[in-house]
Specification:
This protein is an alpha+beta fold. It has helices spanning 19-27, 47-52, 66-71, 74-79, 83-100, 105-117, 119-126, and strands at 33-36, 42-45, 80-81, 136-140, 149-155, 161-164. It has a 6-stranded antiparallel sheet. Strand 4 and strand 5 (149-155) form a beta hairpin. The relative contact order is 0.19.
């Protein structure tokens, strides 16, 4: 495996989120939290987590992807701080999972769309940088909060990420 791990579990092909994970999302309220697939599709979120990514929930479910959100709508460019570092890591993560599953239709559709619609994505994709997503922090500039917020992410055994943020007024 590309990550060097032998015990990784595959993400469910139908993107089902277990009831226990949904309960966890609710249990951390009022903190925002969301769960993404290995390709950064947002699979579930609690209400504050939905408010963390404004406009994303207006998209059809199959298009709710954090990487798409970073590059295409203007909100994605202004929400994350620093944007350049966040997008570089997001693209490098997709490049890493593409090495393990290069023919995945969800991934090839996403990459094809972003290469055509975003010169920044195309430039980063052509660099061939790779990195494993392993959690960490992201900085947010949120329209409903003055100043800045920090969010941490945690890798799940299925290859997805659960994210939470200690900001309570979103």
């Amino acid at each position: 495996m590309a990550s060097g791990r032998t015990s990784e579990l595959p993400v469910c092909a139908d993107h089902t989120v277990r009831d226990s994970v949904l309960l966890l999302l609710e249990s951390v309220r009022p903190l925002p939290a969301y769960v993404v697939s290995r390709y950064n599709r947002v699979l579930a979120a609690n209400p504050p987590g939905r408010r963390l990514l404004p406009g994303l929930w207006d998209w059809p479910g199959h298009q709710r992807n954090v990487t798409r959100y970073l590059f295409l709508p203007p909100t994605g460019r202004t929400l994350y701080e620093p944007w350049e570092d966040t997008v570089a890591l997001s693209v490098a993560h997709l490049r890493a999972v593409a090495g393990a599953d290069p023919d995945n239709p969800e991934l090839t559709t996403l990459v094809g769309e972003l290469v055509l619609k975003s010169p920044e994505f195309a430039r980063l994709w052509e660099r061939y940088d790779v990195c494993e997503r392993g959690g960490g922090e992201k900085g947010f500039r949120h329209r409903r909060r003055r100043g800045h917020a920090r969010a941490g992410g945690h890798r799940t055994p299925s290859g997805g990420t659960a994210s939470g943020n200690p900001v309570t007024d979103l």
